[in-house]
Amino acid sequence: VADDVTGLAAQPHLTTLMYALMNQAIVPFTALCSIIMVNARYTLLETSAVIVVGIAAICCVLSSQDKKGDDDVAWAIFAAVTTSFAAFSFLCKELAFSEYAKAHENGFRNCPADSDSSLGQNSSESEQSQDEADETLDIFVAGTGVAIIGLMVVTPISMLNQALTSHEPVLPAMQEGFRCLGECSN
Hints:
Blueprint: H1 2-10, H2 16-23, H3 26-38, H4 44-66, H5 73-105, H6 112-115, H7 124-134, H8 139-165, H9 170-183
């Protein structure tokens, strides 16, 4: 959510091609986050692909400095850097699903949520229903958590976006946005 809100602030200052290319910065940021946080290792081909994306973005930014065009270098860098939010989010999701897979392989024996449900139950029927419930990760619950966190994050970021890109006061613009959310037809 944060990368979309802050990245969209840069869009009026960049050409469509530059904006799309700066959004590709998510590739090196994802690789960098995974190397730092999970000590991931990449093949030569994967590393080469990340380097090509990085070089393409750098060349595009450097070439835009030479001519008087529609691209602002500072906004291009800003658009690229904001993709780090999404890269970090992807890595957090990967870690969550990885931990879920490990817990599933271990039969959820060390999960706090499972410890109370198996007390005093010896019937194979209750164990079977518990196993069936544990076999899937409830994507609705995961999506709801992401949406709630996104809602808490997007409001202050959108207020910052409004403050950086406009000379209008922030709170009236936010009030107008929420009013339109409930009343506007589209």
